[in-house]
Amino acid sequence: MKTTKILIIIPAFNEEKNIVQTIEEIFKENLPVSIVVVNDGSRDETSARARSTKASVIDLPFNLGIGGAVQTGFKFALDHDFDVAVQVDGDCQHDISYLNAILDPVLRNETDMTIGSRFIPPYLGYRSSLIRRIGIHFFAHLISFLTQYTVTDPTSGFRAFNRKMIRVFAHYYPEDFPEPEAIAVAGRHRARVKEVPVKMRKRPAGNSSIRYLKTLYYMIKVTLAICLDKVKERK
C-alpha cells in the first residue's frame, strides 16, 4: 500500500527568532512529514537557522511576498510527487498540536482544502488586533456571499491541501495577501473546502509583514481580486 507523502510548507521572511521553534514543534509531533522552508529573501539569519534543522530550505534570491513563497512550496510539492501539502506560518502563531485536525479531513478524502479557523468554538483564544479582526470579518462575509463556502477565518495561513489543489496552486497562487483570494480560486475549481477549529498564538518575536498602514490598500486590492475571481468563474 502506498504511503501518503505529506509536505509542510513554511514561507518565512525575516523569521530568524521563530523559524527553529516552528520546525522543531512540527518534528516533535512525530508525524511522517517532510518540511520545506521557503526563505523569501530574508535579510537576517532565517536561512542559516532553518538549515541547522532537518528541514529542506529553498532560498529565493529576493523577496517575492507571501504568495510567491507559498507558490514555490507548491511547485516543490508537485515536482517531488507529494500527495498532501500543509501551509504553516514561520512565526510560531500556528499551534502545531492541531496539525492532525488540519490533515484528517484531507487524508479521509472529505475535503480538497482544510482551513484552520480561530473563530470556531471551542478554541477562541488569541485573535489579533481589533483592526485585523474587522478586516477578517469583512472578508469572511464577502467570501461567504460570493462563494459556496461559509468562511469564518479567511486570512488563516494554517491550511492543508490534497493533490488536486497542489496542482492548482503550483500553477497559480495569488500574490501579496493571498489567503482570502485563494479561497475564491478554490471555489472557481469547485474544490471542497472546510474549516476546522484550531488555536492560534501571538508571535513570540518580530512583526507581521502586513502593517496597519497597508490595511486600506489590503482590503481594496483583495476585494477586487475576489470579485474578479467570481467573474472568471462565471465565464
- The spatial strand order of the largest sheet comes to 3-2-1-4-6-5-7
If you compute it from the alpha carbons, what radius of gyration comes out, rounded to the nearest whole angstrom? 16 Å
Q: What is the annotated CATH architecture?
A: Alpha-Beta Complex
Strand content: 5-15%
* Helix-strand pattern: EHEHEHEHEHEHHEH
Q: Give unreliable regions as ranges.
A: none
Would you write up a description of this structure?
This protein has helices at 19-28, 46-51, 66-79, 99-107, 130-146, 163-171, 179-188, 215-234; strands spanning 6-12, 33-39, 56-59, 84-87, 113-117, 159-161, 193-197. The protein is of the alpha/beta class and 235 residues long. Strands 3-2-1-4-6-5-7 form a seven-stranded mixed β-sheet, sandwiched between helices. Helix 1 (19-28) links the parallel strand 1 (6-12) and strand 2 (33-39). It is globular, with a radius of gyration of 16 Å.
Structure characteristics:
single chain, globular, 40% helix, Spore Coat Polysaccharide Biosynthesis Protein SpsA, Chain A, alpha/beta, 15% strand, 7-stranded mixed beta sheet, 235 residues
Concise overview:
This protein is 40% helix and 15% strand. It is of the alpha/beta class and 235 residues long.
Give a topology summary:
Layout lengths: L5 E7 L6 H10 L4 E7 L6 H6 L4 E4 L6 H14 L4 E4 L11 H9 L5 E5 L12 H17 L12 E3 L1 H9 L7 H10 L4 E5 L17 H20 L1
Parallel strand pairs: 1-2, 1-4, 2-3, 5-7
Antiparallel strand pairs: 4-6, 5-6
Helix pairs in contact: 3-6, 5-8, 7-8
